[in-house]
Amino acid sequence: MMNNEQIVEALKESGMRITRQRMIVADVIADNDGASCKDICCIVRGKDSSVGVATVYRMINVLEDIGVIERIDMIKHRRNGDEG
């Protein structure tokens, strides 16, 4: 998992402005490896309630698109784990 500085650098390289809200989301993602999207939203909104849920999900999608994070289908992941 990337740290906060690496996430911010990847965002800059993809042409995104680094806003305060994006910094908060990057911090939360860097500090909570493996957290669900819902958990990330809750943590971000706990730090700053002005950050909207849509903003968090857009940021997660951007980070996934540029290869910073990988989304895991937890239901599929659990099923595959149970088969072994």
TrEMBL record:
GO molecular function, one term: DNA-binding transcription factor activity
Descriptive protein name: Fur family transcriptional regulator, ferric uptake regulator
Organism: Butyrivibrio proteoclasticus
